[in-house]
């Protein structure tokens, strides 16, 4: 079976790491010939391109497949993708992310590709943006659904949102959790020497956050509660892992509050190094207002670290309130501060929540499970289509 995946860019991020793990996992299976098309990767979020094999090469860069809506380049990308599919004749095209998902599915349909699968990593429409963009992106998704064989959702919340918007039918959806290599997180340690690199003392209560430094990610909510919270929990430190366009802005806010010694901006971290950073955290917060199901949540739970998350999108499918962490109403800063104080003052509570989370994740988030589920889906769709 010839399978081509399409994604807009290969930055360091959840959707991209999922795609990379999928492609590399499928490459190792017999009977599947894998190729990956991606747009150009640029910016402070880093690149995953070097993680892909050069021999044989499986990655092709499509320069016109840029992330923003672009009235000049988007038609060029559509034509380029169509030509590639007509030349390579894949049996199945599997798209990821909003822009690549729309153009990739349309191009695959134009090229006569028999099976077209799309993974919903996060919503392309919702309350995080205005009515006009919502109408535009929801309309684009409904259009692309007409020639989508099957949808893969990283969380059931995505399926519900898309069905509610009139996109596809229930039978077209499968939830497949975004798997990752569990072992490095299962064995992550709270290494005092690694803490010391960031001026984190052994008895500091370290609150971690792993995400791009960008809008809708919730960093400002932590900064809003920080002054009062630190007066009550002076041993607390905030560890931000990731980079992005908002880094300077956030650092300036921290500096203006005089709290530089309580905030660590670790910057961009290669995925293979993330377990070391999770290991020195005492809890992880996830405050995004737009996310399918952030990989940082199950990764922290795999390391037996409790999580505190806003109840947005798929967060509630791994953050079970008072079982694996605390699930909060979006934007409830008072409750955020209260739950973090509770965790800071109760090591046994942290241990109990973390251990329950680890047990849940071990059974569901292995990368091998994700790859096998996708392979089984491909074979089923192929059999149903009698290819």
Features:
seven-stranded parallel beta sheet, Rossmann fold, 387 residues, 2 domains, 13 strands, six-stranded parallel beta sheet, globular, alpha/beta
Helical proportion, percent range: 40-55%
Strand arrangement across the biggest beta sheet: 3-2-1-4-5-6-7
The radius of gyration over CA amounts to 21 Å
Write down the CATH class of the largest domain: Alpha Beta
Oligomer: single chain
- Low-pLDDT windows of residues: none
> Which architecture of the largest domain would the CATH scheme give at its second level?
3-Layer(aba) Sandwich
Q: How confident is the prediction overall: mean pLDDT?
A: 95
Categorize the overall geometry.
globular
Largest sheet: 7 strands, parallel
Instruction: Report the end-to-end length measured between terminal Cα atoms.
Output: 10 Å
- SSE order: EHEEHEHEHEHEHHEHEHEHEHEEHHH
Strand content: 15-25%
Query: Based on helices, strands and strand pairing, what is the structural class?
Result: alpha/beta
Say how many strands there are: 13
Number of helices: 14
CATH superfamily of the largest domain, by name, is: Glycogen Phosphorylase B
* Total discrete domains: 2
